[in-house]
């Protein structure tokens, strides 16, 4: 139960509703080194080569390929790269063979989604849409499982088998090598709530979380049905979210706007799969902004100061309408 409470607090902060600042609709997240975070949150790590499973044309048998790319071949002059609607991957790790069956998460990006980068001299480059390689699904044969993956540059994401959460990502020295597909898979402690094991770079703000507990779903629904009309309880809710990536995030991802944005969207896709399952709520990205030249305000190690400055920045410079605007930062708060 404590893990569930902490997990809920983490997601509230992601969506800008953490009680730290009483801000309602702005939030900050601190990132720090990969290795120290993963050592604290995951028990084991293995280096593996995942495989993609593809059905033979006109047959029922699957063939295995080490080419993980899900991009659709054809129309090279198209405005956006497109990806197949469904895919399957095999991940052999920790003595188990996991088959991950996933579908493209068509609800992740809004119809008006825009990506913006701010360059030297304040030059703004803006593009409508963005490459969409973000999938959700289940482990084959496991109805209580869930999976969230991106496939733009190898496999990045998480899957949960009912006992453990697993994080998968390309190894650092493999990202630029098209012929190699070595990935790291991290295994969480047993029976931890899966939200606690979202990418370990994202740390909770250093305060005591509120003392609330997520009850089992059936019990919670019975209580809520006493207070809310049935149609409200069963209706899917939507949260429109905008992400701002600071300059340290940009530097962390090899000074690449593409890699920075891909990573941020992958994290939101992971949060969405949990919200969808636990709260019947979807997270929809409406915009993403990346600071490619420098930070637009001084980011302090004091989270209250940073949050205050970010709220000012949102008020004065962000034009998009969103339920929450969240800053991804690599400063350690």
From TrEMBL:
Source organism per UniProt: Mus musculus
Positions of the Peptidase M12B domain: 237-333
Keyword Disulfide bond: yes
Name by which UniProt lists this protein: A disintegrin and metallopeptidase domain 22
Matching InterPro entries: MetalloPept_cat_dom_sf, Peptidase_M12B, Peptidase_M12B_N
Lineage top rank: taxon: Eukaryota
Signal sequence residues: 1-23
Keywords per UniProt: Disulfide bond, Signal
Molecular-function annotations in GO: metalloendopeptidase activity
Matching PANTHER family: ADAM A DISINTEGRIN AND METALLOPROTEASE DOMAIN, DISINTEGRIN AND METALLOPROTEINASE DOMAIN-CONTAINING PROTEIN 22
Gene Ontology biological process terms, A to Z: proteolysis
């Amino acid at each position: 139960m404590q893990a569930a409470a902490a997990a809920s607090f983490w997601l509230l902060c992601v969506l800008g509703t953490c009680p730290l600042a009483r801000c309602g609709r702005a939030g900050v997240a601190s990132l720090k080194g990969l290795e120290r975070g993963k050592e604290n949150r995951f028990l084991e790590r293995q280096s593996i080569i995942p495989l993609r499973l593809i059905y033979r044309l006109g047959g029922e048998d699957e063939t295995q390929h080490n080419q993980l790319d899900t991009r659709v071949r054809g129309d090279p002059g198209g405005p956006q790269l497109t990806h197949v609607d469904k895919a399957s991957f095999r991940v052999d790790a920790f003595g188990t063979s996991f088959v991950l069956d996933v579908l493209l998460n068509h609800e992740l990006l809004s119809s008006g989604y825009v990506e913006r980068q701010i360059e030297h001299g304040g030059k703004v480059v803006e593009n409508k849409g963005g490459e969409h390689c973000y999938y959700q699904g289940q482990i084959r044969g496991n109805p209580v499982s869930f999976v969230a993956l991106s496939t733009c540059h190898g496999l990045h994401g998480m899957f949960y088998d009912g006992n453990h959460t697993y994080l998968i990502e390309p190894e650092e020295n493999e990202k630029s090598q098209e012929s190699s597909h070595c990935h790291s898979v991290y295994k969480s402690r047993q029976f931890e709530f899966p939200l606690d094991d979202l990418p370990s770079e994202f740390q909770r703000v250093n305060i005591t979380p509120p003392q609330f507990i997520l009850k089992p779903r059936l019990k919670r629904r019975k209580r809520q049905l006493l207070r809310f009309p049935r149609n409200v309880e069963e209706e899917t809710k939507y949260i429109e979210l905008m992400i701002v990536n600071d300059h340290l995030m940009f530097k962390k991802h090899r000074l690449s706007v593409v890699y920075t944005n891909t990573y941020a969207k992958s994290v939101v896709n992971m949060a969405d799969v949990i919200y969808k399952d636990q709260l019947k709520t979807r997270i929809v990205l409406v915009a993403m902004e990346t600071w490619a030249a420098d930070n637009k305000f001084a980011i302090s190690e004091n989270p209250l100061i940073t949050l205050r400055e970010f709220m000012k920045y949102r008020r004065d410079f962000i034009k998009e309408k969103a339920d929450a605007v969240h800053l991804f930062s690599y400063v350690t708060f």
